[in-house]
Each structure stands twice: as structure tokens, then as C-alpha cells.
Amino acid sequence: MSRTRILSAIIVAMFAAAACGGTAATSAPTAAPQSQAPASEAPASAPAASAPAASESAAASAPASAAAAPCAASDTAGAVSVKIANFAFDPATVKAKVGDTITWTNSDSTGHTATIKGNEAACTTAILASGKSGGISFSAAGTYDFFCKIHPQMTGKTEVTS
Asked: Considering all CA atoms of the chain, what is the largest pairwise distance in Å, rounded to the nearest integer?
């Protein structure tokens, strides 16, 4: 009986340690949604093929769809910079031009993302560890709200002009 309790306690402790394991536990969930995005897009495109008029009107009314994303993640250093510090984006409102890449640099001790609302699959940085940077390039003019996937209360706005 006591061996069972000890074994149970060890298993619980291992799960607790794995859940609080720092960067390994933080980066694993990010990889899953990114790899799942193409799988979710494939079924969505199959019904759209049978009703092209419906998918075209949906794309026109919702430019934030992943198929017609106005932006994409970029490894290129951007002309526009945003600092992440004290769980906030600085500046909170970012101005850029079509074709620009905005680079977010994390100065906090915990990981953050910069993710365009409504375009979460295509328009997001990886989880940025302290001191790391990531960018998003914009291909269409518009106003885009962004946030941190890990800390959704962190928000900002990008105004992209042509």
C-alpha cells in the first residue's frame, strides 16, 4: 500500500515539474498551433471549392482570413521597431508602410509573442525569449490590432499605409 502511495506521489511530482519546466513547456504549445494551421486550412478549402462564390464573399468581408492574410512572419530585421517591456508594447500604436517589416524585441524576463488579431495563424512571431526579436511583414494597408498570445491583456495597434 505504501509503495502505491509513493509511486503516485512521484508521478504527480513529475507531472508538476514538467508543467513548470520553463522554456521547454512554453515553446511546445506554440509548435502545435502552427503545425495545426495548415491542417485546419485544408478542410476549409475543400468546401470552398464546391461554393466559390461563398468563399470569395467571405474573403472580401473578412480580410483577416488565413488564406488572404495581409501579413506574414518575417526573419528580416524591420524598418520599424517595437520594444516589449513591463508586459507592454512600446509604442502601443505602430505606423508602417505596405512592404515594411515591424520587429518586436522582448526586453522582459518572460516569453511574449506579437500576433495580429484575426490572423493568428499567419501573422505571429514565435515565442520571443528575453532579448530575442521577431518580425511581421505587411502586404496590405489597414489598421491591425495585435496582442501577445501568452498575455492577451498586452495589446497594440498597427496602422499600415500605402
From this structure: 72
Domain residues of the chain, as ranges? 2-161
pLDDT for residue 126 is more than 90: yes
Residue 68 — very low, low, confident or very high, per pLDDT cuts 50/70/90?
confident
Per-residue pLDDT of 82-114, as tens digits, reads 999 999 999 999 999 999 999 999 999 999 999
Own/partner long-range contacts of 106-113 (Cβ < 8 Å, ≥24 apart): 106/130, 106/131, 106/132, 106/133, 107/83, 107/131, 108/84, 110/150, 111/23, 111/26, 111/27, 111/150, 112/84, 112/148, 112/150, 112/151, 112/154, 113/30, 113/148, 113/149, 113/150
Q: Are 98 and 106 within 8 A, CB to CB?
A: no
Write down the CATH number for the domain with range 2-161: 2.60.40.420
Cell of 54: 461563398
d(CA 147, CA 155): 4
Q: What is the pLDDT of residue 11?
A: 63
Q: What share of the chain is helix, strand, coil (3-state, %, to 5)?
A: 35, 30, 35
